[in-house]
Amino acid sequence: MITSKQKIEYYDAIIDVTSVEMSGVFGDKEFDLLAELLKKLTLDTLTIELWPQIISRTIDKLAAKNRIDLSYSIDTKSLTKRIKSLTISQSMWLIGEIENRPKAA
Fold first, then answer.
1. What count of other Cβ atoms lies within 10 Å of the Cβ of residue 19?
2. Could you tell me which of 83, 75, 74 has the C-alpha nearest to residue 56?
3. Taking burial as the number of CB atoms within 10 A of a residue's CB, which of 47, 66, 72, 100 is the most buried?
4. DSSP character for 95?
């Protein structure tokens, strides 16, 4: 039987590997935009496999309505393409990175 501690260690190891493979995939401005977006989204852990689609669809809708601040100066099509291709562990890594990033002054 697997203990809770072993499960946590397993998931921590997956996130560690994922953070190495995801290094440099998203730029600072993309992280800033995603952080703003996630303030307005509620992502349920029961639908974790849908997170990439939910996030990318939201970006697409905002871009179509010209509601993304131009100061981000990012290619939203490229961003949504990368987000749609995320695995579950990469999605968890992305959310964790966004939540743990230092807040802009």
1. 14
2. 83
3. 72
4. H
Q: Which residue has the tokens 């871009």?
A: 63
94-100 long-range contacts, Cβ below 8 Å, gap at least 24? 94/22, 94/26, 94/34, 95/38, 95/43, 95/51, 96/15, 97/19, 97/22, 97/26, 97/31, 98/31, 98/34, 98/35, 98/38, 99/38
pTM above 0.90, yes or no: no
- The owner of tokens 């179509």 is 64
pLDDT level of residue 104 (50, 70, 90 thresholds) = low
The C-alpha atoms of residue 103 and residue 78 are separated, in whole angstroms, by 24
Q: Tell me the residue type at 26.
A: F
